[in-house]
Write a structure and sequence with these properties.
The structure holds 2 protein chains of 2 kinds. Chain A is of the alpha+beta class. Among the domains of chain A are: 43 residues, no CATH class; 138 residues, no CATH class. Chain A has 19 helices and 5 strands. In chain A, β1 and β2 form a beta hairpin. By secondary structure, chain B is of the alpha/beta class. Chain B is globular and about 50 Å long. Chain B is 33% helix and 14% strand. Chain B is built from 11 helices and 12 strands. Chain B starts with a helix and ends in a 14-residue tail after the last helix. In chain B, α5 packs across α10. Chain B has 2 domains: 139 residues, Oxidized Rhodanese, domain 1 (3-Layer(aba) Sandwich), CATH 3.40.250; 117 residues, Oxidized Rhodanese, domain 1, CATH 3.40.250. The chains are: A alpha+beta, B alpha/beta. Chains A and B meet through loops of A and α3 and α4 of B.
């Protein structure tokens, strides 16, 4: 017979050494039969971070309750401008609370067991030991549709240069960013602790004179990813609830919807006009208030790309540029604003 | 006497494989005994590498990348130079390629082929891959290791490589070898990215899976020679090997060129993925050579 928690794990892991099972999972440890022992059992104690982890990790747990990983507020607010007030209420109640919210991550989803994704439960990461970081078993699962395989090269192309040098998520995305800083955010774009390339790469000192010159010319109007994204990344389209979306690889360059003066890499986000229509879910009266293309950092960085090698890629050929006549029909009219 | 010297010269020039400073396939025991004299490059996922690797091995990813609609292409010369230089490789280095296991032998040879094509002559593949290393209970190191960067710059060896134009003009003169599985060659199955069932007319079938045994280890040289002889391939005539997307073909390229010493063998990395889309090439099916 094997145990969920081994004596070896108890000896090695501080949490398991000093806490009993019932300290976190409740239940009745004095009972002898399973039904009685499991009375009041809490299977996912860190769904309440403050109660479960806050006793020792007070500030982190408190901050985490407001973080995007926990609230999933990005999913709620990212689309909200497409609804009028009545539609928004329906969305919040029938879509966000009943569907999107289930994607929130508890402390344990990143530090004890892999998060359940699309019904697949990969189970405990290391015999219930608490792990500080295990990106391939945590981040890679929730972000496994786009960013992670683009980072590792599994979606095609050269693996990101940072991955090739052994860096994974937490090397750039700090614990503070993951846990939040106590501010209730509505979008990942509002995270102040997210990394930027220039924290490590000083453009004034980087490379040959021609490289310095290219950076000086472009840095105010072109994002790093626009030139240094190596290969085509996933573009999703036609999302319908319960029916999934279709996707294809492409690099798309256009105006950053959050900063129209900047050229950047855009990702097609799959909300279509009738995405939520099944089961009398809300219509989107203000659908055209938001674009379908959003600024994205594909995490497929290379020092050299066809754009860094040849100015003509952009300045002559306009390769990869979003063009009005290539925007799929029926999408938001806002998209045309993003054509450079 | 002059004739004898001339013959010696021809033999010496025509058989670069015999001038190797390292066997093309090395065993776990050999690698363990020679760890200080070689650069070990680990081709596995970075997480697998960091969890445990051959002591001193460096991670080396990105030797074959999708490009222009093809799945496995050689990176641009400047990019490849930088990759190899950062791995501590020089033109005269002895390099051992480590893949996951014997099932990934062709992926190992794809990396090894890229290295020799780039101008690194002494390259070997670890027989059985990292699985053989751990099965033999050899010491492993965790985390990531780095080597001092060299000034290596690639000098491609054109004779190892075929592009579509080259194979098209050689269809009637070279021996075209198809390294895919025999049901693919015969036309029963095909990959989704290949447009035609079957094989290039006249192609010799030589599946890459024939190279390794049930334990994932490379079969003895005599067996490989016997297989090649049974398929009636001629060592003195040019060979161009292809597969579906430029990986499996390097397994037989490695064996013929580096192990058996054949001197006129090219690998076509565009393979069936590319040439099956060319309207001038009509694959044939339900026919053996």
């Amino acid at each position: 017979m094997s145990y969920v928690v081994t004596q070896e794990a108890i000896d090695e892991d501080l949490h398991l050494h000093y806490l009993s099972c019932s300290d976190c999972h409740a239940g009745n440890p004095g009972a002898v039969d399973q039904a009685a022992a499991h009375t009041g059992l809490i299977s996912r104690p860190s769904d309440d971070p403050v109660a479960a982890c806050g006793t020792c990790h007070e500030e982190t747990a408190k901050n985490y309750t407001l973080s995007l990983h926990y609230t999933a507020a990005g999913m709620q607010h990212g689309v909200s401008a497409r609804f009028n007030a009545d539609e928004k209420k329906i969305f919040d109640q029938k879509v966000f609370e009943q569907s999107c919210r289930s994607c929130h991550a508890s402390c344990g989803d990143c530090h004890v067991k892999s998060p359940v994704v699309s019904g697949v439960n990969s189970g405990l990461m290391d015999n219930h030991r608490f792990v500080a970081r295990a990106e391939t078993q945590t981040c890679a699962l929730c972000h496994g549709g786009r960013v992670w395989p683009e980072f590792t090269g599994d979606y095609g192309g050269m693996p990101d240069i940072h991955y090739r040098k052994g860096m994974t998520c937490v090397d750039c995305h700090s614990g503070n960013q993951m846990h939040g800083d106590g501010t209730a955010l509505t979008s990942r774009k509002d995270v102040t602790t997210k990394p930027s390339c220039t924290e490590c790469h000083n453009l004034a000192d980087l490379g040959k004179d021609s490289t310095k010159e290219a950076h000086a010319i472009h840095e105010d109007t072109v994002s790093c990813s626009a030139c240094h994204t190596a290969t085509a990344y996933r573009q999703c389209s036609s999302c319908h609830e319960g029916k999934g979306a279709t996707s294809s690889p492409a690099i798309i360059l256009g105006r950053n919807p959050r900063n129209l003066d900047q050229l950047t890499t855009l990702r097609l986000i799959p909300t279509v006009r009738d995405t939520f229509l099944d089961h009398a879910k809300p219509t989107m009266s203000n659908y055209d208030a938001l674009p379908n293309y959003w600024d994205a950092v594909p995490h497929n960085v290379a020092k050299r790309t066809d754009r860094t090698r040849d100015c003509n890629t952009c300045h002559g050929e306009h390769t990869y540029y979003l063009e009005a006549d290539r925007i799929p029909e029926g999408l938001s009219t806002y998209n045309k604003e993003l054509v450079w | 006497m002059k004739k004898f010297v001339l013959i010696l010269l021809i033999v010496a020039l025509a058989t670069p494989a015999f001038a190797r400073g390292i066997d093309p396939v090395v065993s776990v025991e050999w690698l363990e005994a020679n760890l200080n004299n070689v650069v070990v490059v680990d081709m596995r996922k970075i997480d697998d590498y960091k969890a445990g690797h051959v002591p001193g091995a460096v991670s080396l990813l990105g030797l074959y990348i999708p490009m222009a609609g093809l799945s496995n292409e050689v990176p641009a010369a400047d990019e490849l130079s930088e990759l190899l230089a950062e791995a501590g490789i020089k033109a005269n280095s002895k390099v051992v390629v480590v893949e996951t296991d014997g099932a990934r032998f062709a992926w190992a040879t794809r990396a090894a082929w890229t290295l020799v094509y780039a101008g690194v002559a002494d390259v070997a593949v670890l027989d059985g891959g990292f699985a053989a290393w751990t099965k033999a209970s050899k010491r492993v190191t965790t985390g990531q290791e780095f080597k001092d960067e060299t000034d290596f710059g690639v000098k491609f060896v054109p004779g190892y490589f075929a592009d579509k134009a080259y194979i098209l003009k050689s269809l009637n003169s070279a021996q075209i070898v198809d390294a895919r599985a025999y049901d693919t060659y015969f036309g029963i199955t095909k990959q989704g990215f290949v447009d035609q069932f079957g094989h290039i007319p006249g192609a010799f079938m030589l599946p890459a899976s024939w190279i390794t045994d049930a334990n994932g280890l490379v079969k003895p040289k005599a067996e490989l020679e016997a297989m090649v002889a049974a398929q009636k391939l001629n060592a003195r005539q040019e060979v161009i090997i292809h597969c579906d997307s430029g990986v499996l073909c390097t397994a037989w390229w490695w064996m013929l060129s580096q192990q058996l010493g054949w001197t006129n063998v090219r690998s076509y990395d565009g393979s069936a993925q590319e040439i099956s889309k060319d309207p001038s090439v009509k694959f044939v099916k339900y026919v053996w050579r």
